[in-house]
Design goal:
The complex is a heterodimer of chains A (210) and B (86). Chain A is an all-alpha fold and 210 residues long. Chain A contains eleven helices and no strands. Classes of the chains: A mainly alpha (210), B mainly alpha (86). The interface between A and B is large, with 59 and 48 residues.
Chain lengths: 210, 86
Amino acid sequence: MPRANEAEMIARILAGERELFHELIRPYERMVYLTVSAMLKNEADAEDTVQDAVIKAYRNLAAFRAESRFSTWLTAIALNEARGRLRRIKRENVESLDAELEMYGGDFTPAALMDWHPIPSEALESKELADKIKAAVAELPFLYREVLTLRDLDELQTEETAVLLNVSIQVVKTRLHRARMLLQKRLAPVLKGFAPQPAPRRSWLSRRHP
Amino acid sequence: MKLKCKHVWMYISDYIDNSVDAELRAQIERHLENCEICSAILDSTRNILYLTADARTFTLPVGFSERLHARLSSELQDDGEISRRK
């Protein structure tokens, strides 16, 4: 949504046209859900947290400052809500984070391949392919999954991501690089088979000489 | 300076984001022209990210949006006061 329209909509909501808040958040539902579910793996937890975050955004709308984008502000609220929920369920504590990172022993080299046949997005009609990708993302260490979600799924800029996570731009870039390399390493060998098969070469020969 | 494969790998993510300077970009591109392995790594990484970001990969739970707006509606009707403190 263009920023000017958004600012106008926010002003109208604050002036009493509450129902407009539905429209204000509609473009960002998916983004907020993806952000929260990168942190909370349980689908029901993630959904509850998104609802809490949206209600909180509504109640605090008067505190929104137009110098940030509304989407970034909403994402910041969602991240806070998700962190709060995470602390309550204590599913991922600091220890497990360190252990996760050590598992990779600092090795973020990609899987070497001789060639790559592009997989078109239509291949995602196969649930099997989507499931393999989701599993690989879910297996990423928490800090890498978080950055990958904000940058590559939510399509936030590096600077916005750094502000949201309260880390430097270089930290965002490093984590993103590692996340992408881990995904490539994990998925490239597995996904090869999903590329459309090229027509078998010289098959006409076998027809001519049965 | 000639780049080695290992160096190209360090910059794959920045290269994809177009956040390497022009000189480094040119060096990486020269390397890619002659290195099938690095080209395949770059292509596969791009392809995987493209598929990961596709809306068909991570889908919302069925009825997610309806439930969200239903809860929001009851909030707006009940005590839907926006806090005035700033």
